[in-house]
What we know:
By secondary structure, the chain is α/β, with parallel strands linked by helices. 38% of the residues lie in helices and 19% in strands.
Amino acid sequence: KISGGSCQKPDNVRVSYGTAGFRGNASGMEYVFFRMGMLAALRSKLKEAAIGVMVTASHNPEHDNGVKLIDPQGEMLAQSWESLATALANVTNDQLIEQLKQIIDSQKIPLSNTSFKEVVALVEGIESHKKQVMAVLDGASAFGATCHDHGLLTTPQLHYILACYNGGDIKVDEEHYYQNYASAFKALLNVVSLCKLNPVTSPVTVDCANGVGAAKLTKLAERIGANIIDIVVYNDGQSGKLNENCGADYVKVQQRAPAGLNMEPFHRYASFDGDADRLIYYTLDSDCNFILLDGDKIAALFATYIRDNLKKASINLRLGIIQTAYANGNSTNFLINQQNIEIACTPTGVKYLHEKALTFDIGVYFEANGHGTVSFSLFYLNAAAFDPNKSAEERFAAKKLKLFLDIINQTVGDAMCDLLAVEAILQDKNWSVKEWYRIYTELPNRQAKVQVADRRIIETGDAERKVILPSMLQPAIDELVRKYPSGRSFVRPSGTEDVVRVYAEANT
Ligand code: G16
């Protein structure tokens, strides 16, 4: 018996750690949350550091709750532990103790180490899912771990707080996050507006998917000040349901505005997902056509801004963009052929993109769905900003780039930080959304979800761009695609929903 419901695993149920943690119908999944509490406590003992546990439905409907573990530096759980998590979640109730012993032995977890007090930081994305949170607490406490329940936070806020905590700032809290990013944004805007006679601010309307991001974005905007950024929060959770007909996933996949939003041409609109780790922008053109500025366009904006400033500062660093199969063909063409920026492609899941990004000096990674960030070291930029051998113009560009990167949450894609970063670049370039979306025109594209009896029979290769099994599927896709100029299509099983995703693009 646990306080958060029953920790008994039902028979004949199999779950998998998936693209980003366990997801599924929350009721009846308490045993998964309980076991993940235990696993977090064990990982904390091994790493001698706090481990994060996020309880969130993320981009999925509220009843599909989930749990993801976060490693000490705020990065995703190490991939080698995902299989341990899956194994632990799937053993029968009778095998649970034995499985825990196996993990302890195979990972050489020092249970007797008393020098470190293991800590599990816990956060929930949805108020109504207290039961699942309690199950995690019970699991972690079973191994004597101390738990800090931070209450409602966005996923990236937990990543940030965890990284600061393990970095030695044990008093870090939510307010620290706002102060850090509000002052970083203001510092860059100060420098940027100094160069302008009439800095212009225009409002940006943000659909927060009725999720936790609404209250958090309001707080961040207050810390920055309405005279510096004008944010209008839409879908704040007062009436609508989480991710229902709104949010980044809905807008991206449906290619339409959240329900009930009356759009005006060339106004800037943005959407978060339920736990605010994804961001996309959109607007209407003068003919009221819906224009989407998704993760690909955000990546292109960030990368070209970084590249231009590196050039102005005469700093020679290797910059790369990481995409997935979902990246629009024209975004890839634009970056490689027109901008001469290096591109890499990985399977879906920010854990893969993040890993690849670290192989560049500066890695900009974004999934088309709006999940992404930038990885970098400030070492060269700090040095260049004060280098007496550089010209004033070069030092200024280095300083600006450093201030820009201060706005970025490196630990994970963060909708709030990414929003500030987009707004800062537009201000600096004196661009409206029109100049931004015109950098390239997307190939028309569609995404669909297909329910099948067992999505696991589909296996993919080549960064999910080709189907390996069943073997007759890829030739059939190739035959269809051949009929359409610039055609491209792929299918892959989702790692967060019980569906197969289908993507297609072509020049009409
Ligand atoms: C998660 C992952 C993303 C991934 C998305 C969809 O997003 O963090 O990297 O793109 O799931 O994955 P799939 O297509 O496998 O269902 P989130 O926002 O739910 O954490």
